[in-house]
# Entry
Amino acid sequence: MRIGHAIIASIAMALAIPASADSTQGITDATIVIGNLGPFSGPSSVFTPLNYGPEAYLRYINEQGGVNGRKFTTVFADDSCNEAKGIAAAKKLIYEDKVFMIMSNPCSGVAMAIKPMLVQDGVPWIGASANPKISRPVSPSIFHTTYTGIESGRAMASFAMGKPGTTKIALAMHSDDWAHGYCDNATDYVKSHNGEIVATTALEHGATDGTAQALQIKASGAQAVMACLYQPELIVLLRELQKFQINVIVLGALGADFDQVVQAFPNHDYLNQRFFQPYQFKAKIGSGPLKKFHDIFVKYLTKDELPKVGEPTNFYYFGVPLAIVTVEAFRRAGPNPTRESWEKAVESLKDFDTGVLADTETFGPDKHVGVEKMYAVGLNAQGQETVYRSWGDALADSE
Amino acid sequence: MLALLPQLVVSGTSTGMLYALIALSMTVVYRATTVVNFGHGDMVAAGAYAVFVFGLGFGLPFLVAMALAIALLFAAGFAAQRMLLQPIVAGPHLSLAMMALAIGYTLRGALRLQWGNETINPSRPYPQDVYLFGNVVVTTDDAVICGSVLLLLAALFLLLQVTPLGKVIQATFQSQRGAALVGINVPLFHALMWGGGAALGALGGVMLSLITPLTPDLGQWTLVQGFAAMTLGGFGSLGGAVAGGILLGITEKLLGFYVNTVFIEITGYLVPILVLMLRPQGLFGRRAVVRV
# Structure
């Protein structure tokens, strides 16, 4: 038995040595190496602003001198929103590039695919993907600093049902995990608040027409539509609803950029007080407290990393809290950070204001999703973009 | 629910006209070269982006931008055939199909490189009005798409049936060896048909850009629908491609509304399965007969 114990103890020690050595992987006297994983190619590359927003903030921090004398170095890796590519890219980041942590990662499928590897190796992850299962139940190294499908789905349904008399809800959704992440949670909210799902329609990626869906929604007598759709298909659906003048309110999920959707309607009277999205931010994009971040994007991102046309969009801002929390945790972890001390530092954040999101960040050992409260954004009766706390309760511009 | 049937048929016809145009452009290439252009959807997408670039990027009027986009895609199709397909034309048929696929993916990659991280919302060159015929809603988009495709069909009919050039094209469609024997430059004909197919595809892309936001993967969906319409109408039949497209558009609307909306996406896959099992030559195709 003693020999057996000795062998087991030796194996355990052998396994333990690299683990403890790994806890400072990516940290040198002068740098902190961050892996930035995202869909830099492929059909989902529309989400890369979620990768560039946090990168802009890290470059800004570097120019301020970094954190505790260390500057951030980013290694980008392309997952194309494909699970197999994502696993390969994450392996490269962790085992070849020796990053301290992985950041961004907008694609839920990839995040779920690499999660076992992250958990096994204790690699910290702060991502923007919406699937709530990534950070629930809690894993020591996995954190959501932005809203998951649970918060967003609830926000969509609660805003719609906040309109007096609204109980009949229709769903228009893609048939994938991402859409279910929003619409399933919206459905739970509707059912638990005496509402009814009167129609469930599928509108798949790449669809150029939504006549059948719009007519089904009309025939169902729905008062509101939860549109768990990416941007192109959301625009297609809205155009069809407009074409048939169907009198419903539409709540889009966070797969679409509100401003760009509105821009697709040169005459957007139909959208006034009809189209809304859960809103993550404490003010209007690019204004008030968010102006600082607009300036950071414009200054620190390259031409290729910024939009070809127009100002930085919603997704740039939505990505920033990932970097803000990451940086703050490094500050709190002190001059000799390890993965464990960094994770404890994240968990120590209470009511931490990122300056970006509608809610403050609060973490704990049993809570690895920092934010809950969301607003909604829509066009008021005059067609002006307006942020609402709840139905009919607009946030003043000065707030 | 039956009250909505006329609306579904009208909307299905409008969508089907687009499918018809794409199927027709694929059929032109297939009839001329017996190659199914699996990269055709990406040529449609390239056409949509080209009109956007000429229109918004260079500030040209819509019709000029459209003409330039069509001309550009004609040149691209012509050049692709001359430089990439002609050199391997004597090789296995599969190589030609793979080359066509590769051309499509290359185009898609180029579009992603430039516009991969954004969705483009091209503006219409006309106001979007809605007209009511009883309970049936028809939009300006519907009228523009159906009108443009019908005009194009009429022009193609005249070209093929009335003009001497049309007779040359028809003759070469029927027998390339015979055409070569009477002095027709068949390789040049192939290149012209590739150019023509790409130009028609570009017109499809232009029409598509009126009703849907642009993403580099726009072509994937259109390829499937175009292929399904071609199969339904009968491979190689120009009229069949048009009829197949319209039938496909109406079928997906009816199945989507009366059965389940998930059928809208899979109709384009179900149709080829059913047609190839029940009537392999399609509705208007000819049964292939091999003389032994």
Summary: DSSP finds eleven helices and two strands in chain B. Chain B touches chain A through 44 residues (CB under 8 Å).
